[in-house]
Specification:
With 459 residues, the protein is an alpha/beta fold. The chain contains 18 helices and 15 strands. A six-stranded parallel sheet has the order 12-11-10-13-14-15, with helices on both faces. It has a four-stranded parallel sheet with strand order 6-7-8-9, with helices on both faces. Helix 4 packs across helix 5 and helix 6 (147-154) crosses helix 7 (179-190).
């Protein structure tokens, strides 16, 4: 939730549209929740410090407590340490012969940015626990690794859990970080009673790295809880007028076969290799020229971070190169649209013949779960073996190595040639799985695990 003032000076509120916001709605509906978040806008900062009463999308009440940070500290926290440093570590993205170069500026950003912002969140949590000492605290992701230990030091009996939405790399890759940084990250996380991961692969890596850096076996504190979507809400969205209008636009000029990808312009999403794989497919299948296209709907991501801004430029150059090579009359193979347009993304989900999800690494990738729910063409999912969703959906997807461009081209061909009955079977199997294991299941898995851990932890 973020606040502003309209032209008449009246306060307005805008709900966040990110995956985490959507995923946590069932908590608001079924539990007494106080949401602690950063104050971003000027109006946010005017409300910081005290809890604000709010309503969820379904009318369920919750409290929102905004935490104000000094601007330079927040920029250092977000733009220097969290993104790109920690994000690149989690997704194994650093080009190690050249980057990162951790100098005094990084040291200052860690101490005066990341650590300071985490301390601000910890202070807000401690203040809430003074009012409700029996409340469970639910931390999320790589932004708040230090806060749990700070809370534990002041509130030793608090019930703390932390969900890590991103992949957890093997211990050696944490050597990118200075020793004091990687140790502080692992100490912060292990201060929780429960630590959740998207897949057993990421959970095992964390257990190994905690053993390596701390000499501790944290296995009993860990749980695998794959995140999912609110299926009924998503299916309702697919029938909304905004989505239907966007779908009419796609249908009006779609080719016979449509490959869709929906991503942020993040280096971890592997967009450039996906374009090159499509180029190889067209080389091998000139008969498909003018009969097939790739619709790439990309949300511009973190453009204030140089690595992300440069990757978007590379994406645009690569799309132009492939289009210039194969363009015929008014047809071009790649329809690249860089915009934040979620209704159009959902419309594209409904129309794909092949969905390409070839991420280098992904904690989960909800696109692989969302799109099959609403697809109307028995579409096939081509899915990276390094996406967390692969652990659940591999039996019904066409799997790819995200670094094997030729293999991805072959996977596109395989997906397009599958018999209609097999396409339908795969799509319906994914739908059934996602409906059975929805976002409510994700939350209940963690709450049940927390109950088990709390029962055996002396207070």
């Amino acid at each position: 939730m973020s606040y502003a003032r309209d032209a008449d000076g009246v306060r307005t509120a805008k709900r966040g549209g990110g995956g985490l916001v959507t995923a946590l709605r069932p908590l608001v509906s079924h539990h007494d929740v106080t949401w602690i978040a950063s104050a971003i806008s000027d109006e946010d900062r005017s409300l910081a410090g005290a809890a604000v009463d709010e309503l969820g999308r379904d009318g369920a009440p919750y409290r929102l407590r905004l935490v104000a940070h000094e601007e330079h500290a927040y920029r250092s926290f977000y733009d220097v340490v969290a993104n790109p440093m920690l994000w690149f570590v989690h997704h194994s993205l650093w080009n190690l012969p050249y980057t990162p170069n951790l100098d005094r500026a990084f040291d200052a950003a860690w101490t005066d940015g990341y650590a300071e912002v985490n301390a601000g969140f910890a202070a807000a949590v401690i203040a809430e626990l003074e009012v409700a000492p029996d409340a469970a605290v639910f931390f999320h992701d790589y932004h708040l690794y230090l806060a749990p230990r700070l809370v534990r030091e002041q509130c030793p009996d608090a019930t703390l859990m932390h969900f890590v939405h991103v992949p957890w790399p093997q211990p050696d890759y944490w050597g990118v970080c200075p020793e004091r940084v990687r140790r502080a990250i692992h100490e912060g996380l292990t201060a929780n009673d429960l630590i959740g991961f998207q897949t057993d692969r990421w959970r095992r890596n964390f257990v190994y790295s905690a053993r390596e850096f701390l000499g501790e076996d944290v296995t009993p504190k860990t749980v695998v809880a794959p995140i999912s979507v609110d299926t009924s809400e998503f299916e309702e969205l697919a029938r909304s007028e905004q989505v239907l209008a966007a779908e009419r636009g796609i249908v009006s000029h779609r080719p016979d076969k449509l490959i869709v990808r929906v991503d942020r312009t993040d280096p971890s999403k592997n967009i450039v290799r996906g374009f090159r794989a499509f180029e190889l497919y067209l080389e091998a299948h000139p008969e498909m020229i003018e009969r097939i296209g790739m619709l790439a709907l990309l949300n511009p991501s973190r453009q204030e971070v140089p690595e992300y801004a440069e990757y978007l430029r590379v994406i645009e150059r690569e799309a132009k190169r492939v289009n210039d090579r194969f363009r015929e009359g008014g047809w071009a193979p790649i329809d690249l649209q860089v915009d934040d347009d979620f209704p159009k993304s959902v419309a594209a989900y409904k129309q794909f013949d092949v969905l390409l999800v070839n991420a280098i690494f992904d904690g989960m990738n909800l696109v692989a779960k969302e799109a099959p729910l609403v697809n109307e063409r028995n579409g096939v999912v081509v899915l990276s073996e390094n996406a967390g969703a692969h652990a659940e959906l591999a039996d019904w997807a066409v799997s790819v190595n995200p670094f094997d461009v030729a293999g991805q081209a072959a996977a596109l061909e395989e997906a397009l040639k599958l018999p209609e009955a097999e396409r339908r079977r795969r799509l319906e199997s994914i739908r059934e799985h996602v409906r059975e294991h929805d976002v409510g299941d994700w939350i209940e898995l963690q709450l049940a695990a927390l109950d088990r851990v709390a029962a055996r932890v002396p207070r």
